[in-house]
Each structure stands twice: as C-alpha cells, then as structure tokens.
Specification:
It catalyses: peroxynitrite = nitrate. Residues 10-161 form the THAP4-like heme-binding domain. By secondary structure, the chain is mostly beta strands. The protein has a single domain, classed as Calycin beta-barrel core domain (Lipocalin, Beta Barrel). It has strands at residues 18-29, 32-45, 50-59, 65-75, 81-88, 92-100, 104-114, 123-134, 137-146, 152-162. It has a 10-stranded antiparallel barrel with strand order 1-2-3-4-5-6-7-8-9-10. A hairpin with a 5-residue loop joins β4 and β5. 20% of the residues are buried.
C-alpha cells in the first residue's frame, strides 16, 4: 500500500495511518467462549479530509475468516473530535464519535443500525480505543453492550505497523 497525500485536516491524527497486523488478539464476552484471533487493519489517506478504513480478522489456528468491517474516519477540523462510520459484515453499522490526541483515539457509538432480520441479542453500544504505544506498536480495545449484556470488554489486540515490503 502506497501512502496517499495527507489532507491538512487529518494531519493531527496521521499517527494512525498505515497497515497494522496483530498475531495475538483475544476475544471474550459473557455469552460466548473466549477466543483468539489475528487481524489486519488499514487506515489510509487518499488526499481527502477522510481516512479510509478496513479490517479483517481470522482464526488463529484454523485460519478461517472471522470478521470484516470497513468505514471512514473523519476529523472535525481545528478540534480533537473524530467520527468513525463502520459497516460490519454481520449487518450492523455504527457511528462512533470521540476525541483524539497524539497517541490515543477514543470513540463511543452515538448511533447503531442493524438489519431487521438480524438475530438477537442486538448490539446496542460500542466503545473503541486505539492507543499508540510506540512508533510502530498500537493497541485496540473494543467493548460492546447488547440488549442482554451491559458494556463489557469484547476484543483486545496489539498490532505492529507493517511496511509493504515485509
């Protein structure tokens, strides 16, 4: 992936740009068995005031696909406010809004939509936190609330930034 030009409005959060890979994610939730996963996430600039995003995860041992999502991260120019629109492969869309600084992006859902024929329980809230630990190491924690379960940590992973020729 060749980096695109960086629009002035996203320069304050340019630390998040790139391809990030995790070989050691963990997932838990009160209603499911704990699991491990690998994941690749990409935040890329194409010169617009929006960052393109996609993520794909796969089972650590079996290697089969687990979850896909894609979306857009936008910054309110001149502020530390961000909005993240994400579509998930199981029929959920979320608008997550929050704050960022030079090494953190913290988001909480302000709107969640789902397909009318999706199975219960429904996701009612998401919280996501990206933390830049050092230049090429980032962590992500996701918490989720459903119609049956209060907000609870769901996934956590540590990523390394990947340069294309790796």
């Amino acid at each position: 992936m060749q980096p695109g030009p960086i629009h002035d409005s996203i320069k304050p959060i340019s630390w998040i740009l790139g391809k990030w890979v995790s070989d050691s994610g963990t997932g838990t939730y009160p209603t499911i068995e704990a699991f491990s996963y690998c994941e690749e996430i990409v935040f890329e600039s194409c010169g617009q005031p929006t960052i393109n995003y996609y993520a794909r995860s796969w089972h650590t041992q079996k290697k089969h696909p687990m979850h896909f999502e894609s979306g857009f991260l936008k910054i309110n120019p001149g502020t530390n406010r961000a909005a993240f629109v994400v579509a998930h492969n199981f029929g959920l869309t979320s608008l997550e809004e929050g704050d960022f600084d030079e090494s953190n992006l913290t988001l909480k859902s302000s709107n969640i939509s789902r397909m009318e024929f999706d199975k219960e329980p429904s996701v009612t809230s998401l919280e996501r936190h990206f933390i830049l630990m050092k230049e090429n190491i980032m962590k992500q924690h996701v918490s989720m609330q459903t119609s049956n379960t209060p907000i609870t940590t769901h996934t956590s992973a540590t990523y390394r930034r990947v340069i294309d020729d790796e």
